């Protein structure tokens, strides 16, 4: 009996992908994460070239893991996201502020906006996290939490709540992730030396595009209504 | 009153460009001074030109490594010796951790192997690829295979180009490993193509000839004898320390050795402490730390040569 693709399975897939992406940006890969990744399927005909390339590169890297891979990945994480210089152009800085402020500094307006969004969603920052709320890992974790909330709302047949959560996700992608992630991805492709982090770059860019299209599809009526209301206001 | 600027002779004003202009006029601008040839400052490390020149030979690199890590020298030599016969990573890890019980290092076993490999002391032997069985095809089968190949080639042409990862590098995949799953979306049947990660068979670590040559050239007995010959005045002190440590099954603590020799009149001027002697004996391989200082086999051989026994002492 073939597996059914329905809204629930798509939402579960989105949740798993956001969770994985967030984890991979948060800190260096450890053995446990690597072991779990080795069990994943790498789809290669998703219809999005970046997603396919990302998975193909992950597959190539994960199929060639050897004893030094963890060390290599630790070094590549540092090289890619932290860098060895202070020029503001020597790594793929994972904070939105860096890419949206003229001085390429952390803790700028983007971080304040992001923080306000988290608070509006009833979330507060962990005391243990010191890398800024606009870090890509945290922004992806926010999406993960929102997807989880919409899954729960759907399970309770609370379509209004599910729709609100989905709209929040769509707005977050279009207002934030989509505006700066392509820049960090471009830098990742420049600085990363392992297929692993190149794969992460491709997959992130591709998945955000795919997810935005998915949400646009699901929310077509709401988006149409919202556009109509905006025009009315004018 | 004159303008102060008039008091300054033109020649005295520093003009950073003047020399350059002058040099250009004289045709003295070297290649390195040409701004167009200058490198970019703070470019990413991987974009900087690699140092040209050949790598130093393995024995030189190994010596350099051992010299740069004196505290780990014996551990490194033992690791080389351990893979005189090829060992897998797990066996090497186990042995390294065993050695590190008494020789703490911030380096993990994997990093130590990486250092040894870079120095040319050990090699990583990739597992042999599985033997492919050659099948003899009859004419009909051969024609069928050829037709399939042609069909695959034709399919490849129709497949949209895979995005480039780097200039000119494609993400190539082994089509035979692609798996398919049929999924249902509404009334539609979709085929999901995917790849599953394969475990890579681990390779083996084996010592290189250069690595083994350095291990084999190590002669702790000779080195200890030379040490004792170099410092004849302290021969008695060295004897006492070796004998004292040899008497205790689990070795002696630094405090015990301090108490044994620090008050010796010979050590008062110039002032020496037990660490001076223990350090030298350790470096030459006569003493070893195992939660206490113990005499090594080489140390015992030297003691036997000198006719020293615990009883006599």
Would you summarize the structure shown here?
Chain A has 234 residues and is mainly α. Chain A is 70% helix and 2% strand.
Question: Describe it for me?
Answer:
The complex is a heterodimer of chains A (234) and B (313). Chain A is mostly helical. Chain A has a single domain (7-85, 93-233), classed as TorD-like (Orthogonal Bundle), CATH 1.10.3480. Helix content of chain A is 70%, strand content 2%. Chain A has 10 helices and 2 strands. Chain A is globular, with a radius of gyration of 18 Å. The model of chain B is unreliable at 29-39, 155-162 and 309-313 (pLDDT under 50). Chain B is built from 13 helices and 9 strands. In chain B, a hairpin with a 2-residue loop joins strand 5 (179-185) and strand 6 (188-196). Among the domains of chain B are: 59-126 and 178-212, Arc Repressor Mutant, subunit A (Orthogonal Bundle); 219-305, Arc Repressor Mutant, subunit A. Chain B has 313 residues and is an alpha+beta fold. The radius of gyration of chain B is 35 Å and the shape is elongated. Classes of the chains: A mainly alpha (234), B alpha+beta (313). Strand 2 (41-43) of chain A pairs antiparallel with strand 6 (188-196) of chain B.
């Amino acid at each position: 009996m073939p597996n059914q693709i329905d809204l629930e399975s798509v939402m579960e897939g989105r949740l798993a992908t956001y969770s994985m992406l967030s984890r991979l940006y948060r800190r260096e890969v450890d053995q446990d994460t690597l072991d779990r990744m080795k069990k994943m399927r790498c789809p290669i005909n998703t219809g999005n070239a970046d997603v396919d390339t990302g998975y193909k590169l992950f597959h190539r890297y994960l199929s060639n893991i050897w004893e030094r891979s963890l060390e290599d990945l630790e070094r590549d994480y540092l090289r890619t996201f932290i860098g060895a210089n202070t020029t503001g152009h020597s790594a793929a800085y994972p904070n939105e502020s860096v890419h949206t402020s003229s001085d390429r500094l952390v803790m700028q307006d983007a971080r304040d906006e992001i923080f306000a969004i988290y608070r509006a969603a009833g979330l507060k920052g962990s005391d243990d996290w010191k890398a800024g709320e606009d870090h890509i890992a945290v922004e992806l974790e926010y999406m993960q939490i929102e997807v989880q909330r919409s899954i729960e709302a759907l399970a309770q047949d609370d379509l209004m709540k599910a729709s609100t959560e989905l709209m929040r996700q769509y707005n977050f992608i279009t207002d934030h992730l989509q505006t700066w992630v392509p820049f960090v991805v471009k830098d990742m492709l420049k600085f990363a030396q392992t297929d692993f982090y190149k794969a992460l770059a491709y997959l992130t860019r591709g998945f955000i595009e795919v997810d935005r299209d998915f949400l646009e599809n699901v929310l077509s009526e709401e988006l149409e209504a919202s556009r109509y209301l905006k025009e009315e206001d004018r | 009153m004159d303008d102060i600027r008039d008091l300054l002779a033109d020649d005295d004003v520093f003009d950073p460009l003047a020399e350059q202009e002058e040099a250009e006029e004289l045709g003295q601008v070297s290649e390195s001074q040409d701004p167009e040839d200058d490198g970019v400052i703070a470019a990413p490390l991987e974009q900087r030109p690699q140092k040209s020149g050949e790598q130093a030979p393995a024995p030189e690199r190994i010596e350099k490594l051992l010299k740069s890590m004196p505290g780990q020298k014996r551990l490194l030599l033992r690791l080389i010796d351990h893979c005189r016969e090829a060992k897998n990573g797990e066996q090497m890890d186990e042995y390294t951790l065993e050695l590190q019980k008494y020789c703490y290092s911030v380096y993990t076993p994997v990093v130590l192997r990486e250092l040894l490999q870079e120095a040319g002391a050990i090699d990583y032997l990739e597992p042999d690829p599985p033997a492919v069985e050659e099948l003899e095809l009859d004419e009909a089968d051969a024609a069928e295979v050829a037709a399939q190949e042609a069909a695959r080639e034709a399919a490849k042409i129709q497949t949209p180009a895979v995005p480039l990862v780097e200039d000119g590098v494609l993400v190539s995949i082994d089509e035979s490993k692609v798996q398919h799953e049929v999924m249902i979306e509404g009334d539609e049947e979709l085929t999901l193509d995917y790849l599953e990660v394969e475990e890579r068979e681990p390779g083996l670590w084996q010592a290189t000839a250069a690595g083994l040559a350095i291990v084999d050239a190590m002669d702790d007995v000779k080195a200890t004898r030379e040490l004792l010959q170099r410092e004849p005045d302290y021969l008695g002190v060295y004897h006492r320390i070796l004998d004292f440590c040899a008497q205790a099954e689990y070795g002696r603590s630094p405090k015990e050795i301090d108490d044994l020799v620090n008050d010796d009149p010979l050590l008062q001027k110039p002032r020496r402490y037990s660490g001076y002697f223990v350090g030298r004996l350790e470096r030459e391989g006569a003493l070893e730390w195992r939660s206490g200082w113990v005499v090594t086999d080489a140390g015992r051989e030297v003691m036997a040569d000198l006719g020293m026994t615990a009883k006599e002492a």
